[in-house]
Design goal:
- With about 120 residues, the protein is an all-alpha fold.
- The protein has two domains: about 55 residues, no CATH class; about 50 residues, no CATH class.
- Helix content is about 70%, strand content about 0%.
- It has seven helices and no strands.
- Helix 1 runs antiparallel to helix 2.
Length: about 120
Amino acid sequence: MKLDRRHLEIGCDDYARGRFKAAARNFSIAARYGNAEAQVNLANMYDLGEGVPVDVKLAVHYYRLAASKGLTQAAYNLFVLYRTRGNMRGARYWLQRARDLGDEDALNAQMDDRNTS
C-alpha cells in the first residue's frame, strides 16, 4: 500500500474515533505526498478548527490543491467558504468550477448575491 493511502486511511480512522489531532497529523502526511482526499480532509479540519486551529488561509491552500487535481468536493467547499465570508466573486468562480467538474451539490446550488450566509 502506498504511504499516502496508508496515512489517509489511518487519518480517516482517527477522525471517526474523534482523535482529531492524530487525524490532522496523518492527513498532513498524506497531503504532502499529494493525496487529494487527504488535502480536502485537512482543509475541512482547518476550516472548522477540528484538531487544529482555525486557519482559513491553510484551508484555502489545501482545498485549491485538491481542486487542482479534480476533486469536486474541494471546489464546492471553496464556493461555500467564499460565499459564507461574503466574497461573491470567489464564490461564483468556485461554484462554476465545481459545476464544470460535475459536482452534484454545485449543479443544484443557487448563487444568491444577497444571501451571504
